[in-house]
Specification:
The complex is a heterodimer of chains A (201) and B (278). Chain A has 7 helices and no strands. Chain A has 201 residues and is mainly α. Among the domains of chain A are: 61 residues, no CATH class; 75 residues. The longest helix of chain A is centred in the C-terminal third of the chain and has 44 residues. The radius of gyration of chain A is 27 Å and the shape is extended. The longest helix of chain B is centred in the C-terminal third of the chain and has 35 residues. Chains A and B meet through helix 2, helix 5 and helix 7 of A and helix 2, helix 4, helix 6, helix 9 and helix 10 of B. Chain B: Keywords: Membrane, Transmembrane, Transmembrane helix. Chain A: Keywords: Membrane, Transmembrane, Transmembrane helix.
Chain lengths: 201, 278
């Protein structure tokens, strides 16, 4: 069975890589298999890992102490009204709850983690070259994104420096992206040459 | 000469794909070894686990799927190996449903083979997958058993020996996330560290590594392993070279090839443009 799995994975990998030559039915077949299996796997996993242990089992085994779980259960069921033209307005209740809770959680988390903590981390003494470059970079980049004054003179020079900092950041991000894609190629090569063909040392 | 340069600027990208594929395959087949140094970010993550007292509980979160295996699977193996050697108690879970079978693969390849004396429920626990993302983390800070009433094997979580002493996320010595996106490392920083003060470290795909540099610098993240390189460095620290160490040489050669293509392409472009301008 394991051997069958390896052969299947190898052939599907080759089907996907055939796209590098040109778009073709083999690639499309592998792509559709991937999307279909992922969706099916996700639905089954959600049911067995979330719905059963967190809702169904507590309600059926200990209803008196867990009766409040009916509320999220009903909210979850309301989602299926998306398929009804007449009653799809009921979908607004679970969606509003999810959006409200998500926004409430993420706004405070973002403010404390990304705004306050990052600002605090930039308020540093410029007693080393690293610190100086860091503070200068933040200020110059902020100047670039300040559009209420024309980018001329001192503001223009700051904005130009900001562009240089941005270019360096984009370059680093691009370099890392190339590394990530090559890593994926290496991973597939290790699988094809090692697990499948057994010609790797 | 000019014809040749012009042809270079119009080269079919499929030849570049072929050259890249052949370079990687040859580097792996010949098993080229290139030197590598360990960066401070990776050492910081290593030190975080190294300095925890023996028996401390740590949470390992598998927040990736098979698509990111080449980068994150060797890293999770190396860190799991390190935690087991140090006799840390490992609680495993994941925010990505397709990552959960990878926990099982890792347990069977690392723990059961190299640490056969480790007992499930006492030394390590697999809580499995649960959706909910930030809500799940906040619930875990209140009670892990509420968030995960059952473990991966359908045991009641609060009946497991390890989970009797580890009631909430706040009991953890550290959180380690192997992250391929969202939900992942950023969410652990926002909630586990920023809200509950639990030290967070982990690895991410190379694509998202620059994003985390800011958190490293601000001290919100205790070390970071970016991509296959981070994994290879951690393998070097635990003195157990694996797939990432082997892959890094192929990685370096592929980068040489790409830099070569970029230089040749630019040279050909500028030389042909100069002649056109004349």
């Amino acid at each position: 069975m394991a051997l069958f799995g390896i052969w299947l994975a190898a052939l599907l990998t080759l089907c996907i890589y055939s796209f590098l030559y040109k778009d073709n039915p083999l690639y499309k077949f592998a792509e559709h298999v991937y999307v279909g299996i992922s969706a099916g796997y996700f639905v089954a996993a959600e049911f067995h890992n979330v719905v059963l242990p967190n809702l169904w089992i507590p309600l059926t085994t200990n209803f008196a102490h867990k009766y409040y779980l009916i509320i999220p259960g009903v909210m979850g069921l309301l989602v299926f009204f998306a398929f009804s033209r007449k009653y799809n307005w009921l979908l607004r209740f679970p969606i509003s709850m999810v959006v409200g809770m998500g926004a409430g959680l993420s706004v405070t988390a973002f403010l404390s983690t990304d705004v306050l903590a990052q600002t605090q981390a930039t308020l540093i003494p410029m007693n080393s070259l690293n610190n100086f470059l860091l503070v200068l970079g933040v200020l110059a980049t902020l100047v670039y994104f300040f559009f209420s004054a024309e980018h001329k003179g001192f503001v223009g020079a700051g904005a130009k420096l900001g562009v240089w900092y941005l270019m360096i950041a984009f370059g680093a991000a691009f370099g890392y992206t190339v590394m990530a894609r090559i890593s994926l190629l290496i991973g597939r090569m290790q699988f094809l040459l090692g697990d499948w063909l057994h010609i790797l040392k | 000469m000019r014809n040749f340069l012009e042809r270079l600027t119009r080269i079919d990208r499929r030849w570049i794909f072929l050259a890249l594929g052949l370079t990687v395959a040859l580097a792996l087949l010949i098993n080229v070894k290139l030197p590598m140094t360990v960066s401070g970010d990776v050492r910081q993550a290593y030190d975080l686990l190294e300095k925890l007292p023996e028996g401390s509980p740590v949470l390992f979160s598998w927040d990736y799927d098979p698509g990111s295996m080449p980068e994150l699977y060797p890293l999770s193996a190396a860190m799991l190996r390190h935690a087991m050697r140090r006799n840390l108690k490992v609680v495993m879970m994941g925010h990505w449903v397709t990552g959960i079978p990878l926990i099982e693969k890792q347990v069977s390849e690392v723990i059961r083979v190299e640490f056969p004396d480790k007992v499930y429920g006492r030394d390590y626990v697999n809580l499995g997958y649960k959706s909910g993302q930030a809500v799940l983390v906040v619930t875990m800070a209140k009670s892990i058993a509420d968030a995960f009433p059952q473990d991966y094997y359908k045991n009641k979580t609060d009946t497991l020996e390890l989970m009797r002493s580890v009631k909430s996320l706040k009991d953890m010595g550290a959180v380690v996330s192997f992250s391929a996106g969202d939900p992942g490392l950023i969410m652990w920083i926002q909630f586990a560290w920023q809200r509950f003060g639990v030290p967070v470290t982990g690895g991410c795909t190379a694509v998202s590594a620059p994003e985390f540099s800011a958190y490293l610098q601000s001290g919100q993240l205790m070390g970071l392993m970016g991509g296959m390189r981070g994994a290879a460095e951690y393998e070097a620290l635990v003195k157990h070279p694996g797939a990432a160490s082997t892959g890094m040489s192929a990685q370096s050669l592929a980068h040489f090839l790409i830099v070569g293509f970029i230089l040749i392409g630019n040279l050909a472009y500028f030389l042909t443009r100069k002649k056109e301008d004349k």
